[in-house]
Design goal:
It contains nine helices and eight strands. By secondary structure, it is α/β, with parallel strands linked by helices. It has an eight-stranded parallel beta barrel with strand order 1-2-3-4-5-6-7-8, surrounded by eight helices.
């Protein structure tokens, strides 16, 4: 079964998920309907990211969801993750592809730049992400984008387009209507009092 690259993409946050309940919290999001989980660890050691990744991978495999690792192609490969997500400070898409091989999903951050998305697709990215449409507590250095960027991207790129940044149940439908194939959500899922219910409510929009 191939999992489609669309729908709810839940991104982990060290400050929102207690370490001792990491896998079970991710499981709640997946049970709620998250199709993709991104393991986003900015300050953990390589060993710790691999350990967390393996625990999360056991969960995503069980439910038929995908595990994407943020920033670290070689770590994604070591975990056996489904994919890796790279930004402007990370290895380029071609470098990442050379490292992880032909099968792994590669996502690319394109900020507010459709030309960057076109280039990423040509280089072999499997999906692109634009942010941030709304102020976000997890992205303090934000690029302010308008929702029109999703329509422009749909005209010019042929891979799935995700939106990230400040997306909540109150504004998610606007982003989807604007042309996003998926929404990447951090606090809107993992900052909610009931993670599974929050994920379910967002997943129902698709």
């Amino acid at each position: 079964m191939t999992v489609p690259l669309r729908g709810l993409y839940a991104i982990t946050d060290t400050h929102l998920i207690p370490r001792e309940r990491f896998a079970e919290t991710v499981e709640a999001a997946v049970r709620g309907g998250a199709m993709l989980i991104q393991l986003r660890e900015k300050h953990a050691s390589r060993e710790e990211i691999i350990q967390l990744g393996q625990a999360v991978l056991a969960v995503t495999r069980r439910y038929g969801a995908l595990l994407i690792v943020n920033d670290h192609p070689s770590v994604a490969k070591d975990i056996g993750a489904d994919g890796v997500h790279v930004g402007r400070e990370d290895p380029s898409v071609p470098e990442t592809r050379a490292l992880v091989g032909p099968e792994m999903i590669i996502g690319a951050s394109c900020y507010g730049d459709v030309d960057r998305a076109v280039a990423a697709e040509q280089e072999g990215a499997d999906y692109v992400a634009f942010g941030t449409p709304y102020p976000s507590p997890t992205k303090t250095k934000r690029t302010d984008i308008s929702l029109e960027i999703f329509q422009a991207a749909q005209r010019r790129v042929h891979v799935p387009v995700f939106a990230i940044g400040g997306i909540t149940l109150a504004n998610a439908q606007h982003v989807i209507d604007a042309g996003a194939d998926g929404i990447a959500v951090v606090s809107g899922v993992f900052g909610a009092p009931d993670v599974e219910a929050a994920a379910w409510a967002l997943a129902q929009l698709f």
